[in-house]
Amino acid sequence: MPVVNRINAFADDMTKWRRHLHTIPELGVECHETAAFVVERLREFGVDEIHEGFATTGIVAIIEGQGDGPTIGLRADMDALPIHEATGKDYASTRMGKMHACGHDGHTTMLLGAARYLAETRNFAGRVALIFQPAEETGGGAEVMVEEGIMDQFDIAEVYALHNAPGFDEGAFFTTPGPIMAAVDTFHIHIKGKGGHGALPHETRDPIMAACGMAQAIQTIVSRNHMATEDLVVSVTQIHTGSADNVIPETAYINGTVRSFTPEVRAMVKRRMQQIVEGQAASYDVEVELVYDEGYPPTINDAAKTEFAVKVAQDVVGVPQVHADYGREMGAEDFSYMLEKRPGSYLFLGAGEGAGLHHPEYDFNDEIAPLGASFFARIVERAQPAGGK
Questions:
Q1: pLDDT digits (tens, 9 = 90+) for 295-305
Q2: Is the dihedral of CA 271, 339, 307, 323 positive or negative?
Q3: Whole-angstrom Cα distance, residue 343 to residue 347?
Q4: pTM (predicted TM-score)
Q5: Interhelix angle for 207-218 vs 263-284, to 10°?
Q6: Which residues of the chain have pLDDT under 50?
């Protein structure tokens, strides 16, 4: 397709951009050097407007098309993860304990590639809003940008995003209408008993036994309080307590994650967890505090926009390479906040074989960057053709 061919012409530049970004990973909203690099490229491309400072380092750039029309939002995340890189690449992270282990350097590059093409050709009506977002991994940068009013300020009518997917066929697209990723909640359970000598347990109120009881009982929320045919995950991921073999500790801490898709299920889990920890605390004669943090909502694709996005992806890579009913998964994504405000779609782009996301040996596959950039560009040209064709 013409878009792919034109973007392929500067594929080497995209690889250089991506690998530079890979060397300078930044966490959360503190993506200052990344944002500066993005702004420098956007100015080179000749975009019409650059607005900085959303969610601290977020950017919204505007490209005007030919004639009147709505504004389409295209989003890429910029932040990295607190992981020590183990790839051994010559462009590996230069920041100790930080790395782009989720491919956000690649996502940013794909959107920059689309920006360069769209600013050059402007073969569309209306406007494009290029959204470069910090703090997807932690901090909910999308929520902050939405709360700061980007949807209304830039009159964004619909919004799209991509995420690379290692282990999936290289260059294939995967999506689904409706829920595609889960809501994510986090629970913290603080237990206080009475410590003492390990040889005299009768003189203590053992928080370890209480923690074990709570961790086991929490698993019954999925198995006994929830319809088995519906999706729900409750995982205990941390238990911390104790300091010596002959000491029963005073306190214990339990932490974990909950993944769900509906408000009703979220409310049920929170209610049952509170009942369980209070009941177990009474059984073991300890004090307990449950802190239940509701995080990102489910990522819900608009059916019509997803059908459109599938057709665009088929234009780019061919019908056999697009999986339009991939189903949903239990991971979470703060692009959900943007989809709550505007219709749109979230898609995965297969990256082929390699280490998985959030792994210290992960590296983004530069071969798929032109495909992602082409998808973004074609979304705009197909949705808003110049001259209304």
A1: 999 999 999 99
A2: negative
A3: 14
A4: 0.95
A5: 150
A6: none
